[in-house]
Amino acid sequence: MSIQRIAGGRRPKRRFPRPGVVAQVVALTALCLLWIYPFLWLVSASLKDSLTIFASGLNLIPERLEWENYGRAWNDAGFSRYMVNSLLVTIGTVVLVVVRTALAGYVIARYNFIGKRVFLVVLLGTIFVPAGYTIIAVVELSDNLNLLNSLAGMILALSGGGQVAAILLYAGYFSRIPRELEEAAVLDGASFFQIFRSIMLPLAGPITATVSLLTFLAAWNNFFVPLVFTFTRPELRTLSIGMLSFQSENSVDWSGLSAAATISLIPVVLLFMFLQRYFIEGIAGAVKS
């Protein structure tokens, strides 16, 4: 009688993982370290003085922690004000983009109208139009509306693009929702906006989280539009434009610049950690559709 039969048909447990699994873990760990090394170097540089940042080479451990770099970036360079401006502009942009793209995606997915195919072709064609080609028209329109050099104008400029990816994400998600929900709401006397606000938009929570995160990243890191809208009003600068405060004609304050860049990354990292699960669900739902 074999040992396997004596043990009741159970195979002996492995004490050590297979060599192939170990090799995969080692390779993925090395790849992850290589991937996040620039971020770790940035955080390390923010805690060094400017003379030792490049002299230390690839060493990530500072000889002495220079916490005053963060104080210089936050107070002296005005990043406390730039942070408020960035939050106001980004949140306003996210709200407008989510409402507009969700409505557009809902109409495209649930309604047939004259010229729908032409509209979709034109909408997809906007992907190939660089943002720099439209900036003159955006500035002229903002100036005519007395919105140039203002946070409101900046929000409208950032949220007024085609946002094709967001519209298609919503359209793909809404197309999978059973029409019986809308028919029941219509029988109860619900209007178009009541159905959208009370039924459709709450069901599209994962897509909303995905679109919000992508829009947040795009607006938070945008440089061109805030630069144009803050030429004459430096107090309206966002964090991306505030980075120019550390550069002069003859030198660059690399330690202060690294500290400022680290500060600007903190909200992005926190938001991604909070919305990570919903982001993955939204992408998975869009791919299935």
Can you write the helix and strand succession as a string? HHHHHHHHHHHHHHH
Largest sheet: none
Number of DSSP-assigned strands: 0
**What is the fourth-level CATH superfamily of the largest domain?**
MetI-like
What number of domains? 2
The CATH topology of the largest domain corresponds to MetI-like fold
Shape: globular
Q: Briefly, what CATH class of the largest domain? A: Mainly Alpha
Structural class by secondary-structure content = mainly alpha
The CA-CA distance between the termini, in Å, is 55 Å
Q: Which percent band covers the strand fraction?
A: under 5%
Oligomer: single chain
Computed CA radius of gyration, to the nearest angstrom: 26 Å
- The number of helical runs is 15
Low-confidence stretches: none
Mean pLDDT: 83
What share of the residues lie within helices?
55-70%
CATH architecture of the largest domain: Orthogonal Bundle
Structural summary, described in words:
With 289 residues, the chain is mainly α. It has 2 domains: 14-68, no CATH class; 73-288, MetI-like (MetI-like fold, Orthogonal Bundle), CATH 1.10.3720.10. Helices cover 70% and strands 0% of the residues. The protein has 15 helices and no strands. It has helices spanning 3-6, 19-45, 50-53, 68-76, 79-110, 116-125, 131-144, 151-159, 164-174, 180-187, 192-203, 205-221, 224-229, 239-242, 254-288. Helix 9 packs parallel to helix 15 (254-288) and helix 12 (205-221) packs antiparallel against helix 15 (254-288). The termini are far apart. 28% of the residues are buried.
